[in-house]
Amino acid sequence: MRAQTERAVAEAQVILFVIDAREGVTALDEVFGEVLRRCAAPVIVVANKSEGRAGESGALDAYGLGFGEPVALSAEHGEGLADLYQAVMAAAPADEDPLDGTEDGDKPIRIAVVGRPNAGKSTLINALIGEDRLLTGPEAGITRDAIGVEWAFETRRVRLVDTAGLRRKAKVEEGLEHLSTRDTLRAITFAEVVLLVMDATHPFETQDLTIADLVEREGRALVFILAKWDLVQNPQAALAEFIDQAERQLPQLRGAPVVALSAETGRGLDRLMPAVISAHTHWSTKIKTRDLNDWLREAVERHPPPAVDGRRVRPKYMAQTKARPPTFVLFASRADKLAESYRRYLINSLRHSFDLPGTPIRITVKSGSNPYADGEAKGARRTRH
Ligand code: GDP
């Protein structure tokens, strides 16, 4: 436990030290406290199970650990989360440029495989990493631990996360629907690239659409997999029909990669990892502010936003605030009057101009002009906060 804790805290920027408020500070908590006192990152003591009376004394007790005011929380009842959020924000290292520090080329790309029961997920995973290898010990090039399986594709490391839900499937037959929904959510949360496996003989059932939409809303990169392709009669027509259907039913994911494959014959499998890498690259795109504003000027000239109450709504300046997924802030005069359809126009144009097929794109519209135009004045104001 000690070794594991030391490894975890070595990587952390903020540490949440969770104690059970009902039990108070135990001897073991004291031991962890000793370990944490020696690390550089800020420590927030979280007194969990603090709902009701029974937690009060434990929360007080937690002061004694010497890490300042504990955050009283009930994870189960969802109480105290706002306080925790504030404590984390206050403790987190200031990040002046949010686009810095996302450079993690040496970290593996985290992949999850999701889809309806029987879509062909397990078969695909086994084809990717080998059935025997999944069940037995590690082999050359593949490592595994409690949370996933890792290997390298060309120069990139990839990690398949959360195969636990899939493995559990074999044992749990009852409540499968419920289980798969929960596991799907979990897998999406942990992943960067989500492989949505669909049975190619009847793709785009309601559940598939729901999952695809969820992936988009969670801001992950998506790759459509048409599994069991060997069972499809007229592959070319089927693929065209599929892409057409995708664009109609999921316009927010326009251009996401589609890989038709058969895990059983192995056909098409070689196109999977290149699609994953490509989706991940688009998802990680960073656009220079100058290029972004050159594009904005052109996009607005080509198609100005409609006037509201006889006055123009003017987009003025745009900046990317983060990648993964690409997220932008647009400053406009009378921002609240900018039509949703116009925001969609900008997203589509951005997708097209900067080659961002299929990746979720976020644009927040804010009032005001270029906040960075007079950098010094604004900078001064910001430090006063
Ligand atoms: P999961 O529930 O999504 O994990 O689906 P499975 O991987 O267990 O597959 C469901 C069924 O589809 C099994 O009977 C598989 O043998 C079959 N299956 C999976 N992939 C293929 C494929 O590429 N071709 C064919 N013909 N059958 C497949």
Question: Could you provide a short overview of the structure?
Answer:
With 385 residues, the protein is α/β, with parallel strands linked by helices. It is 39% helix and 19% strand.
Please, could you describe this protein's structure?
This protein is α/β, with parallel strands linked by helices. The protein has 3 domains: 2-91, Rossmann fold; 104-283, 3-Layer(aba) Sandwich (Rossmann fold), CATH 3.40.50; 289-384, GMP Synthetase, Chain A, domain 3. The protein has 14 helices and 13 strands. The strands form 3 sheets. Strands 5-6-7-4-8-9-10 form a 7-stranded mixed beta sheet, with helices on both faces. It has a 3-stranded parallel beta sheet with strand order 1-2-3, sandwiched between helices. It has a 3-stranded mixed beta sheet with strand order 11-12-13. α2 links the parallel β1 and β2. The protein is globular, with a radius of gyration of 25 Å. The two termini are 41 Å apart. The chain binds guanosine-5'-diphosphate.
What's the topology here?
Elements: H1 2-11, E1 15-20, H2 27-37, E2 43-48, H3 56-61, E3 71-72, H4 81-91, E4 109-115, H5 121-129, H6 131-135, E5 143-145, E6 148-153, E7 156-161, H7 164-169, H8 176-190, E8 193-199, H9 206-217, E9 221-227, H10 235-249, E10 258-260, H11 272-283, H12 289-302, E11 315-322, E12 327-332, H13 340-353, E13 362-367, H14 375-384
Parallel strand pairs: 1-2, 2-3, 4-7, 4-8, 8-9, 9-10, 12-13
Antiparallel strand pairs: 5-6, 6-7, 11-12
This protein binds guanosine-5'-diphosphate (GDP).
